[in-house]
Write a structure and sequence with these properties.
The complex is a heterodimer of chains A (116) and B (114). Helix content of chain A is 0%, strand content 48%. With 116 residues, chain A is mostly beta strands. In chain A, a hairpin with a 6-residue loop joins strand 4 and strand 5. The model of chain A has no long low-confidence stretch (mean pLDDT 92). In chain B, the strands form 2 sheets. In chain B, strands 2, 4, 5, 9, 10 and 11 form a 6-stranded mixed beta sheet that branches. In chain B, strand 7 and strand 8 form a beta hairpin. Chain B is globular, with a radius of gyration of 13 Å. The chains are: A mainly beta (116), B mainly beta (114). At the A-B interface, strand 4, strand 5, strand 9 and strand 10 of A face strand 5 and strand 10 of B.
Chain lengths: 116, 114
């Protein structure tokens, strides 16, 4: 169990560019979540996957955002035509298949995006 | 709809003093409640969670929290603060259907002075 990993840890881009982040969950964890955290705020839910199926999307996930989990393992989050308001920490979390009331989300270190 | 309110965006204590971080929740159903800690430039680490078992929950690093339904509260405490406890703390709520998204409060920054 090596924990949830995210790549890159930091990304600086210019407004209008596209960026893609990757998340590798804990192996055998079927649920994968994306959250966004802006300065001085708690994380806000964006979307989650059960295996490769995207089951829920927040209204925060505009049409410029797309997330995939093609083989039910790692996931990518792409932001097209970045805006300065997209600057934030993007956090990924994973958990075991639901059904257990003690299911816990384990978080990665995050990708900090700065849009100039 | 569920929500979390953390009272006090910043709490300062002396080393060895009691730590009390406040969290109140709103939920239409009995929720699951969590406390996470975040150190600078790191992800979130789970401290403890309440999932409708014992109302007094013990977590890591000497922290504990008590679920009080009548007060809709889930305050985090530690009897004696350590310098290494300085971090940001988040309270979160989720629907008791397992695997749903967490809804976080805005966080409380804990400072510990020597």
């Amino acid at each position: 169990d090596t924990g949830v990993s995210q790549d890159p840890r930091h990304k600086i881009t210019k407004r209008g560019q596209n960026v893609t982040f990757r998340c590798d969950p804990i192996s055998e964890h079927n649920r994968l979540y994306w959250y966004r955290q802006t300065l001085g705020q708690g994380p806000e839910f964006l979307t989650y996957f059960q295996n490769e199926a995207q089951l829920e999307k927040s209204r925060l996930l505009s049409d410029r955002f797309s997330a995939e989990r093609p083989k039910g393992s790692f996931s990518t989050l792409e932001i097209q035509r970045t805006e300065q308001g997209d600057s934030a920490m993007y956090l990924c979390a994973s958990s075991l298949v639901p059904g257990s009331p003690t299911d816990t989300q384990y978080f990665g270190p995050g990708t900090r995006l700065t849009v100039l | 709809a569920q929500s979390v309110t953390q009272l006090g965006s910043h709490v300062s204590v002396s080393e060895g003093a009691l730590v009390l971080l406040r969290c109140n929740y709103s939920s239409s159903v009995p929720p699951y409640l969590f406390w996470y800690v975040q150190y600078p430039n790191q992800g979130l680490q789970l401290l403890l969670k309440y999932t409708s078992a014992a109302t007094l929950v013990k977590g890591i690093n000497g922290f504990e929290a008590e679920f009080k339904k009548s007060e809709t509260s889930f305050h985090l405490t530690k009897p004696s603060a350590h310098m290494s406890d300085a971090a940001e703390y988040f309270c979160a709520v989720s629907h008791p259907r397992a695997g749903t998204a967490l809804i976080f409060g805005k966080g409380t920054t804990l400072s510990v002075s020597s």
